[in-house]
Amino acid sequence: MSKANISADTDEQSTTPQTPKTYPCPQCRKPTSWQNNPYKPFCSDRCKLIDLGAWANEEYRVPAQDDPFSTDLH
């Protein structure tokens, strides 16, 4: 096989369209494509706003660690 044939095969493989990878929307779990999705990582504006509302209502909390150097003994 010549170098020309090898490079032609490689070029053909690189232009083959691939199926977009999907992942579950963090809100509704619907399979969602990352590519060309303006609401990443969500599937829609609705799911994005539901999540934002949950943060605003303090439904999600970031765990805090106790300060080992604190003098406050609760």
Can you characterise this structure?
The chain has 74 residues and is α+β, with helices and mostly antiparallel strands. It is elongated and about 65 Å long. The chain is built from two helices and two strands. The chain has a two-stranded antiparallel ribbon with strand order 1-2. The mean pLDDT is 81. The chain has a domain at 20-61: Erythroid Transcription Factor GATA-1, Chain A (2-Layer Sandwich).
Query: Per CATH, what is the topology of the domain at 20-61?
Result: Erythroid Transcription Factor GATA-1, Chain A
Strand percent estimate: 5-15%
CATH superfamily of the domain at 20-61, called what?
Erythroid Transcription Factor GATA-1, subunit A
Question: Architecture of the domain at 20-61, CATH level 2?
Answer: 2-Layer Sandwich
Mean pLDDT: 81
Strand order of the largest sheet: 1-2
Tell me the structural class: alpha+beta
* N-to-C order of helices and strands: HEEH
Rg computed from alpha carbons, rounded to a whole number of angstroms: 24 Å
| Low-confidence residue ranges | none
CATH class of the domain at 20-61, named: Alpha Beta
Shape label: elongated
Summarize the main sheet.
Answer: 2 strands, antiparallel
What is the CA–CA distance across the termini?
77 Å
The portion of residues assigned to helices is 25-40%
Number of helices: 2
Number of strands: 2
